[in-house]
Amino acid sequence: MEDALSDVLRLIRLKSCVYFVRDFRAPWGMEMDSGPVAQFHAVVRGDCVVETGGRRHSVTAGDVILFPRGSAHVLADQAGRAAIPGPQVMASFSGDHPFFVEGESATQLVCGHFEYRDDVRHPLIAQLPDLILVHAFDALSRGTVDSVLPLLVREMQHGGPGAATVVERLAEVLLIQVLRAHLAREHAPRGFLSGLADPRLARAIGRVHHEAESRLTLDTLARTAGMSRSAFASHFKSRIGLSPIEYLTKWRMYRAGELLRGQGLPLDRVAEKVGYDSAISFIRAFKREFKISPGQYRRAQRPAPGGD
Prior knowledge:
Blueprint: H1 4-11, E1 15-25, E2 29-32, E3 38-45, E4 47-52, E5 55-60, E6 64-67, E7 73-76, E8 84-85, H2 86-93, E9 106-115, H3 123-126, E10 132-134, H4 145-158, H5 163-184, H6 192-196, H7 199-210, H8 218-225, H9 229-240, H10 244-262, H11 267-273, H12 279-290, H13 294-301
Helix pairs in contact: 4-5, 7-8, 8-9, 10-12
């Protein structure tokens, strides 16, 4: 049985884009506006500071900085440095006069972003902090992040045929390793990742993910977790932020969306495959989650006539 985190990452259709691996020579500063994608930076060599939300963090070689919801931020060689907007910096790299190529001290950065579907509001993304910072010296990240980053840089600088695909996949692995490190040190009482860190809740979530078509009930999930009905319901809600049945319903609707996107099944079969005896009750639940009917959702996924 695959784990719940893999299920969620597959569901949100993670896609990576790596912009560059480059040396930034002091003095330098780069400012990124907030945006719809998750931005990341990895420090390959040297050090710098990152400022976001009124707070400043020092980062050094091997550290990875992730902004899960694309929060605005500034990277610079030192605090207070005047920063140039990121799009201007990117444009300069393809011209005759790239920024930040003169100076004594160089910081090498890998920068990029991750995209995911915006129609799926899974708690994993909604509950992540605005900033995740994984330090190379953190014991929880050793053997994970630091094993992926050198491979990513090597492919970007010296890769052969297929390097672009390898870079994309390695960036996605890097994200998973960052989330693993974040999960391993997660002490917050709430959140999907903290729920996965609880073996009892993880068992129940796994059953939801892989038996969504079954007649799962609160009692069934509580027995899977090895807890009483009331204790399980209370503990699940306090950790995940949703009741067990609310999460079950959401996951069923996400699975239904996948079936509507990829298969020509009639609605009653889709309803059956996600645990509903009645197409009517399924349609009502689907509209509550996606704000449109299953039929409208399916039509919206079809390519436009003449499109690729």
